[in-house]
Amino acid sequence: MKNYSVFDVLGPVMIGPSSSHTAGAARLGKVARGVVGEDFKKVEFYLHGSFAETYKGHGTDRALAAGILGMETDDERLRTAIQLAESKGIELKYIPTDLGDEHPNTVKMVFYMNDGSTKTITGSSIGGGNMVITNIDGEKIDKDSELNK
């Protein structure tokens, strides 16, 4: 059984409105950027379940954009992250989809790299601003991986 701290109960310091849909999504994007690097020109976000249904209203689109730009969950620029990405020449596409039996707050991110290759990262926001990466380029990632700590 996991031991919870007071910080798990209070939630993360963040730009809202939702710890799952905003903070967790920003963290997913930031970890994905750490895996693929910064040399990409386009990202497609395949949004599943609750992410697909509420991504505009809950700011998931802005949060994912902020994350791939390397922003923290409390960065004031999160609100304008889509425009910031576009001003840097990064094309963003948000595609509601059904990813099957994945967690309801799951996103598959396909990065189009400047060298012509693609890199795919899938992860889920699991509540309270926490997230897990579940797949990198077709390889399942253990939930206890260092990447998810």
Fold and architecture overview:
This protein has 149 residues and is α+β, with helices and mostly antiparallel strands. It has a single domain, classed as D-3-phosphoglycerate dehydrogenase, domain 3 (60s Ribosomal Protein L30, Chain: A, 2-Layer Sandwich), CATH 3.30.1330.90. The chain contains 5 helices and 6 strands. It has a 6-stranded mixed β-sheet with strand order 2-1-3-4-5-6. The longest helix has 18 residues. The radius of gyration is 14 Å and the shape is globular. The mean pLDDT is 85.
Question: What is the CATH C-level name?
Answer: Alpha Beta
* CATH superfamily annotation: D-3-phosphoglycerate dehydrogenase, domain 3
Second rung of CATH, namely the architecture:
2-Layer Sandwich
Principal-axis shape:
globular
Major pleated sheet: 6 strands, mixed
Pathway: Carbohydrate biosynthesis; gluconeogenesis
Catalytic activity: L-serine = pyruvate + NH4(+)
Domain Serine dehydratase beta chain: 5-79
GO molecular function: 4 iron, 4 sulfur cluster binding; L-serine ammonia-lyase activity; metal ion binding
Overview in brief:
The protein is an alpha+beta fold and 149 residues long. It has helices at residues 6-10, 19-36, 49-54, 60-68, 81-87, and strands spanning 40-48, 91-97, 106-113, 118-127, 130-136, 139-140. It has five helices and six strands; from the N terminus they run H-H-E-H-H-H-E-E-E-E-E.
SSE map:
Elements lengths: L5 H5 L8 H18 L3 E9 H6 L5 H9 L12 H7 L3 E7 L8 E8 L4 E10 L2 E7 L2 E2 L9
Parallel strand pairs: 1-2
Antiparallel strand pairs: 1-3, 3-4, 4-5, 5-6
